[in-house]
Amino acid sequence: MRSNLRNQEIQLDGTDSKLIELLYENARTPIAELARAVGMTAPSVNERLKRLEDNGVIDGYRIDINPVALGYSLMSIVRMRQHPGKHKQLESLIKAIPEFVECDKVTGDDCYIARLYLKDISDLDPILDRVAEIADTSTAIVKSTPIKRRLLV
Predict the structure, then answer these.
(1) Closest CA to 71 of 115, 114, 120
(2) How much is the pTM?
(3) pLDDT > 90 in the chain, percent
């Protein structure tokens, strides 16, 4: 179980930041290689990583999937504002459509902003038709992503 320190700011030193950067580039980097890169012993690096995990700084280790390799050549951003009384229904629908890979609940004119992957532009309307029954939508096709998700450290 993770520590309850999540709401407290954790101070990282240069070694912590370097370890996080190395793991962000390749989460499968062996401990021995991380240790060499930061000039520490493997047990010391292991302790640091455990502390970063326990304090909630490292929240998990993941892989990145290339959607294009799976045939998803288009990405769109869908902004949604649910119809009155349809909040839970919209959230459930978004979760049920696997092409929605990420969704944020936001303030402002919209209620949700989501990323939607498509194999073909013809796949867009059937998905939007399902959503339109309970929400107003505004959709943009993503041309490129000049800044991918990046580290905060």
Answers:
(1) 120
(2) 0.80
(3) 86
